[in-house]
Amino acid sequence: MTRKNKTNRTSNRPDNRADIYTRITNQIITALEQGIKPWTQPWNAAHAAGAVSRPLRHNGQPYSGINVLTLWASSMERHFAAPIWMTFKQARELGGHVRKGEKGSPVVYANTLTRTERDEATGEEIDQTIPFMKGYTVFNIEQIEGALLHKAREGFMSRIQCGSWAT
Q1: Is 149 within the bounds of a domain?
Q2: Does some domain include residue 21?
Q3: Rounded CA gap, 44 and 54, in Å?
Q4: Which of 34, 144, 155, 158 reaches 20 to 30 Å from 82, CA-CA?
């Protein structure tokens, strides 16, 4: 699909907003077809390395909302034991790299913007709240290679096993 962007250049990238909705919907449908309810926490001890945890960002902050469901589903589908996820760029910044051929998992960032506009009829300033959602791809730490990352993974896993991040 070719579309115009804000600077009137054309791009061959699909619209990320529609793409992320489709990717997450398809992931949930696939899990349901396999008899898995992706909205239930995966308490299966074989899946977890220690205590079961919400998926975590590379800095230890837990994901929330639909991201928990999609990352749990990805973990179960690919048999990941570690709950730690990061972007390609974050892996590189930590001295690692995503292994060739690895497939990432979709997550979303949703927020709102507040824009102040002037009402032409009254001259009054009105705050307009505009919701937005941005989709991006993350990789489980088990898909990433690099000396610094393995030390980080060991530290994360020992903290999770002690229960300091288990939720």
Answers
A1: yes
A2: yes
A3: 14
A4: 34
Tokens 């999770």 belong to: 160
Cβ atoms 85, 70 nearer than 8 A: no
pLDDT given for residue 20 in this prediction? 72
167 within domain boundaries: no
Overall number of domains in the chain? 1
- Domain coverage including residue 138: 3-162
Instruction: Confirm whether 13 is domain-assigned.
Output: yes
| Residue 166 CB neighbours (<10 A) | 15
Structure-token match 């749990």, residue found: 72
Q: What are phi and psi of 105, to 5 degrees?
A: -120, 145
Q: Average pLDDT for consecutive 10-residue bins of the chain (167 residues)?
A: 40 53 80 76 49 81 91 87 91 90 93 91 90 92 78 59 48
Q: Tell me, what amino acid is at 95?
A: G
Q: Is the Cβ–Cβ distance between 57 and 86 less than 8 Å?
A: yes
Triad 83, 90, 39: Cα angle to 5°: 30
Closest by alpha carbon to 135, among 13, 21, 11? 21
CA–CA separation, 34 vs 157, rounded Å? 29
